[in-house]
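user: can you give me the structure for this one chain? tokens are fine.
assistant: on it. calling the predictor now.
[tool input]
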Amino acid sequence: MKFTLRQLEFFIALAQTQQISKAASRCNISQSSMTVAMRNLEEAVNNALFLRHAKGVTLTAAGERFLHHARKIMNDSQRAIDDLLYQPQLAEGTVNIGVAKTLSAYLLPAIITEVEQHFPLMSLNFIEDDPAQLIASLRQRETDFCLLLTSNIARENDLKIETFIRSPRRLWIAQGHPLLSKPVICLADIANLPFLLLDTDEYPDVIREHWQTRGGQPNVAFTTTSFETVRSLVAKGRGVTILSDLVYRPWSLDGLRVMRRTVEDSMTYMDVGAVLSATVALSEPAAVVLDYLRVMITRQGEDA
């Protein structure tokens, strides 16, 4: 039996929502149809892709691997269609775009080539910096708009904030860790484990504040500005962390597996979007580029 693109769409939706009802609603089908489609898909690939439990489903190790391939297949099929319809924008001008460090590391490499090809006559300048510096440059009109973690930006009258995607934060943990045998993981389960803290884009303040609202604090064992260091240490079983799906990759540079699980009583989100001046209108070139980036970033969020 061969699988279909429609089955892959259902599979990705279920992997993201982890509940049959939510996935079925997202795909506009009945729960029974979703269940049958996933059973048929597992038969087609001759592997169990999900672990079923009372509160929903989680991916098996095979399911995690297949999810990577499913997303690539869906992306490639969409790009094939887009390529046939592709018409580059011939607008000219210079657009300066501020970019948060997290997005520069994990979002920009995925979209920059396509963006530049779409605007061949544009001069696009991406400027990486800390959020405070980027907001200051926006106010000084040194940048046209900024791509930031909008969940971390204070709402001020002179700023217009638009969120494109909400990326859930989940627990990252080494393959084979004892916690993975639990059907449900709560914040209390990881309170005493060594916590690996990523120090970028104000994340330490965000996670500590969130933890404190629940009467505790993370047991920080190591702090670093490097995503890959966090990933490698997690994969080696040296600690755990909580980071967003947008920056998740299943393998460390050493080829070791990083698993992710939802913390049931501690769901937070990394919001990604644009920050603009509320008092100065965007130039026409900047508005066109922002519209295109909105579509590109939203697509990346759906694929995460």
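assistant: here you go. The first strand starts at residue 50 and ends at 53. The chain has eleven helices and eleven strands.
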